[in-house]
Structures are given as C-alpha cells and as structure tokens.
Amino acid sequence: MMKTVDLGFSALIDGKWEKGTQELISSNPGRYDEIVAVFSEANADQVRRAWTSARSVQKSWAKTPAPVRAEVILNFGKLVEKNKEALSQTVCREIGKPIKEARGSVQEVIDTCNFFVSEGRRLYGQTIPSEMPDKECFTYRRPLGVFGFITACNFPAAVPAWYFVPALVAGNTCVWKPSEEAPLTSYYLTELLLHAGVPKGVFNVVFGGASTGSELIKGVEEGAFDKIGFTGSTQIGKKIGEVCGRNLIVPCLELGGKNPLVICDDSDLELAVEGALFSGLATAGQRCTSLGNLIVSKKILDAFMQKFIPAIKSIKIGNPQNESNFYGPLISEKYLNSHMRNIETLLASHHELPLGKGGRIGFESNWNNFFGDEKKGFYASPTVVLGVKENDEIYATETFGPLFNVMTFEDFDEAIHLANAHGYGLSSAIYSRDPQKIYKFKSEISAGMTSINNSTTGAEAHLPFGGNGKSGNGGRQSGIWVIDQFTKWHAVNWDLSGKLQKAQMDTGYIKADLSYGF
Ligand code: UN1
What we know:
The protein is of the alpha/beta class. The chain has 14 helices and 25 strands.
C-alpha cells in the first residue's frame, strides 16, 4: 500500500498553505482502506481571505506584460510534463480513473499550456478606422479581475487547467475550490504552479465540499468576484447562475449531459461497437461527455447487439492501475450509491436487461473478467437497458455510471428528435457512411460538440468545449474561444484633430443620387 500524504492543508492564501480543523480525507476508491491523502476543509474566514488576497494583487498581475504572465504557464506546462507519471498515478489512485485515461487527462493539461503560452504573445485587439479624419480607434482585451471557480471530480487536472491557464494568461487572479474527491491531485497541480513562478496571491485554493463552495459563491453577492466558473450538475449550475445574474456576472457553466450516439443502418458496425463501448465506459461512464442514449436504427438493432453484448462481456474491469482493465471503480462511494439508486429507481417493467440489472461487483453482481479487490473497491458492472422510450425517466436523466440506454428509431428524423428532445446539449455522435445523414445530423443536433464516426467522449484540448440547453449557459472552454470568457473588450478612440468631432453628426457622409436607375 502506498504511503498516505498527510498535510492537513485547507487553503493556499497569499502564497502560504494553511491548515484547518475539519478533516478532508481522500481514499482510493479501488481499495477504500488505502487513505491517499489527508487535507482539511477551508472555513468561511479562509474563503474570504482567499478572495481578498486575489483582489489585492490583481492590478499588479494585470500590469505584468501578458508574454511574461504566459511564462508562468510555459514553466507550469514543463513541470506537469516532468511530473506527468506521478500526477497520472495520483489521478488514478484518488478517483479510480484507468491509468491510460489518467495519462491522457494529464496530457490535456500540457496541451492546454502549450496552446496558451503563445496566446500571451497575442491577446490581439484591433485597430479600426474611424469615420472621422485624424482620429484612431482601437480595441483591447482587458482582464476581468478576480475569477472564482469550482470544479468536478471526474477530470481533476484537465478541467481546472482549462479554467486557470487562460484566466491567468489574460491577467486575472484566481480562487479555486477543487473537488473534495481529489485534494491531492489539486495540491500537486497548485505546487507545480507555485514552482512555475506564479506570484503570491495570484492563485489561491480553498479545499472542501459543498459548504466551501457556497462560501465562495457568497462572495459573488459581496462583489468579490468578476467571473465564476462552475463544472458540475445542472441543478447547482442553475443556482449559481441565479446568483451571478443578480450581480451582473456572466458565469461559465459547464453542466450535465445526456449525450446521444446515433448508429445508422449504413454504419461500420465494428467501429460503432468500439465507439459505443468507449463512450459508455471510459472513466466508468463518469465523463461529462459519456454516452447518455444509444439510438440505434431498428433495422440493425439485432446485428448491433450480437456484436455489442459480447464486446461488453469481454472487457476486463478492476484495478485502474492495471493497463489492461477497461475501467476501474466509481469515483467514490457516493458515486457508487448514486449509480445503485439509478438502477433501482429508473428501470421500468418494459425494459429488458440482457446483462441483468448489474450493480456492485462482489455484492449485487459478478464479473467474469474482474481483476481487483471487489470487497474493498466501489466497482460496478455494466448495465444495458433495452427498450428505452422517450417518456421514460431514464431517457432524460444524467446517470453518470456504467449504464447504457438503448433506444431505436425507424426514420432518421426520429433519431434526431430523440437525440435532442431531453434538452441537454453537450456532446453527440453519429456512426454512418451516408454524407446526407451526417450533414443533417450536424446541422440539426443541438449539442455543442459532435463526433462523426467517433465516440461522444474525447474532445481535443484546443477546440471549444461546452454545451447548450441544460448542459450550460453557452460558454465555451478551451481554444481561442475561452479568451472571451476571461477578458472584456475595451473600445478606445483617440482624436488628434484638435477639435471636437461629433460621431454621426460631423461625419462627412457621401451624398449619392440613389434615384438613378437604367
Ligand atoms: C469532462 O468530462 O468534464 O472530452 C471533460 C472528453 C475529455 C474531457 C471531458 N477530453 O471526454
């Protein structure tokens, strides 16, 4: 068993780690008797001091030239690369993400740094002609100020980096409330940032669960924040959106999904099976981009199932550190319990369960290819639900676990309807060889992301990531688009004419004879 990292820290404020009293324990979900780390929860006073610290240095950070700010990110990216394996192992131990996926998620941090380092040398504004002589117009991107963000447990390194990397490059200071399920990953990331040269107070951290999160959001009512980022459930996202709206702040809300994967009768079935498997079971179905509804053409349902069920049965489940296991435990006991509740409450009498109801391995269910400690881990076997209908509760409920909802369609409009009707719109995918269908799908799907002949998961780090409808408020992370989240436009005009030139009134508009015609 690996050693416990017992630091007891509850917050990083003004460059110093502080301890707290309320313990925050992170254990390995694949072996719950292995305590990975002991931290503590930040209290209301610490959260307040964290945002005060971020505010006190924001102006000087904003004055630091952007290419210099981006140097911190360059160094941070190099340090993450150097420590990639250790960080990946930590992600794997803290939340049970399979090691290969954990490495991918840490690589996503590095990719994000690589992308934004040069953005520090751009952050372009424009020079724009004026309608007056001897007058110049410019636009500048200005930092927003203090950015508070709360992140989820399923991507404890990549998703926070999507927020703080561009936020820092753009000249904002930060207060981060990481997921309570992954304090050690969050601590290591923060230490790398400190070693990369981030000045005191520019980056602050408050550990804890929901109550620390609400303390942070209280700051919005007091004017402590200029921007809030939240990755988590639609329900909490709506509440945060209300507080931000009241205070005229536009939050970046990355919420739930019920991501459709449509399999047409002309698709390459082998490829579709592989894509569905990864969409549904990567990170044990706990990605925001995980498969929500598998929507299969009725014509090929039997042929698809004949390949799909054996493919599921053949996967290995178990210790996430072992590369040959497809997936490991659920993120924690809480996530296992919620998955169990879903299979207890969302299944209806008309549903068929070709693999049985599933459930916790070693308790309610067994798995032939299981390689782990089932008594001490929060492992669940896959559940496949056939015959899901649009009116079923399971159709529109984000389930976050190894669960496949299978629906069928007769005509393609029905497939698109089923893909959209639940009102979520994060990711989506289609398997087809027909360009007409693919074109129709990508034009009519309401999701923010669409894969064609690829899985619903696995967005690349430099593309806009985000959703519509119940999946978010239209904000996008990653790539150049996220710069709009972290800067405000400033329009400047400079009159060198030596007189007051009134726009629209003194402009020398051209007089034309518009009555002219042939
Ligand atoms: C998430 O689940 O919140 O697209 C992020 C993917 C990953 C990121 C997911 N690149 O599946």
